[in-house]
Amino acid sequence: xxxxxxxxxxxxxxxxxxxxxxxxxxxxxxxxxxxxxxxxxxxxxxxxxxxxxxxxxxxxxxxxxxxxxxxxxxxxxxxxxxxxxxxxxxxxxxxxxxxxxxxxxxxxxxxxxxxxxxxxxxxxxxxxxxxxxxxxxxxxxxxxxxxxxxxxxxxxxxxxxxxxxxxxxxxxxxxxxxxxxxxxxxxxxxxxxxxxxxxxxxxxxxxxxxxxxxxxxxxxxxxxxxxxxxxxxxxxxxxxxxxxxxxxxxxxxxxxxxxxxxxxxxxxxxxxxxxxxxxxxxxxxxxxxxxxxxxxxxxxxxxxxxxxxxxxxxxxxxxxxxxxxxxxxxxxxxxxxxxxxxx
Length: 343
Fold this sequence. Notes:
Elements: E1 2-4, E2 7-10, E3 15-20, E4 23-28, E5 31-37, E6 43-47, E7 49-52, H1 54-62, E8 66-70, E9 76-80, H2 86-99, H3 101-129, H4 136-154, H5 159-177, H6 201-223, H7 242-265, E10 274-276, E11 282-284, H8 286-301, E12 303-305, E13 312-314, H9 318-330
Parallel strand pairs: 2-6, 3-7, 6-8
Antiparallel strand pairs: 1-2, 3-4, 4-5, 8-9, 10-11, 12-13
Helix pairs in contact: 3-4, 3-5, 3-7, 4-5, 6-7, 6-9
């Protein structure tokens, strides 16, 4: 159980939620795990759906407290709300901002600042941890380039220029990605990003990791009442969760890229885990996907201190924290959307 931004997160499996007065009570096999006053809660988010009492659902509906259920893997299941009060206002504001490119750019640039800042500190960590195995001078040059681009982005008010600056930063970062692969170099290498289809083992893993991250972020956005398909940087396209792609930008490197690199460098995966088809497409074998998913779930349980909130939370709750912060910004509770800045 974790309270964060007036939201109660329940991450233990097989927990039943009930009501006792003005308190939510957590029960597991009739044993009381905890209770918390509800007078300051805005939402309750439960992972590993077991159930909630009708009394609790009615209490939440009457007081506009959203009750949200996810699977233990983070897939969105359902959201119980009463009359459409704050939720409809939030989505209307999201749609209004999305239609205005200048307002969209103000939010989008913070997503990209977060992404590039985190890429910079991935690079800096490499120079600190592996100075004898990489070209430190080259890494420092790219780090300085990324710092300069961040300054340009902070002053940018145009979406098209913002995308150009993001592209420059991605090009510089990707030049170093192969150097961050320290083991199994014959079988795992990165020359450029290939998406549809992935053409090598590393790109196959990156595509899978990005897909998992996008799903986690989309679920978190739905959980707070935002529309995952209406973005600010990524514009509307049928079937594309544009806002999820926006928010995950700042987490791509520090969450997905580092995860893929760790699987390679610790030899959790090997060349036998991949299959190359006749058209050049590289796919992960079923057993490799199972290993990947198990490691991904373990990663989500690791604890970090959230850089903006100063609270210790699991990696799996980071997308939910960012979704809450974005919703607060759109409700004018924050002057600026605070990106996730890892160091």
